[in-house]
Amino acid sequence: RISTNKYVVFNVSKDSFFSLLVNSIDKNRPVICHVKPDKLPNNPYAGDGHYVVAVGYDWYAQGSAGYSKVTYNDPHMNNSVYGTYTCDATVMTEAIRARYGYFLAA
Question: Whole-structure pTM over 0.85, yes or no?
């Protein structure tokens, strides 16, 4: 719980990750993602689960063309993985789904 906004658990199978990400980030609340680490482009380690924190987004849509990106911090203890990265929103969604499918948003 941060300030007066409480975090809620969502499932990517039922809830739209990107729209909830946008809503949470626009309220200055990062999104906590429980992922399968080797599904993200920066993390080669196959592990049971790992947490990253989504802190930003970028999107563009025009007609059928467009993109949606997620910026996230990886707090990994290995310095070769630790850092801030950007990936496609579908990549993050699949990394979450590959674990248990849950994320926390405000």
Answer: yes
Helices (H), the chain: 17-26, 89-99
Give dist(CA 66, CA 54) in Å, integer: 20
Contact residues for 59 (Cβ-Cβ < 8 A; gap 6+): 18, 22, 66, 67, 68, 69, 89
Label residues 13-38 b or e (16+ Cβ within 10 Å = b).
eeeebbebbbebbeeebbbbbbbbbe
pLDDT digits (tens, 9 = 90+) for 29-55: 999 999 999 999 988 777 788 999 999
- What is the phi/psi pair of residue 76, to 5°? -55, 145
Q: What is the CA radius of gyration of the chain?
A: 13
CA distances (Å), 33 to each of 27, 58, 64, in order?
17, 17, 28
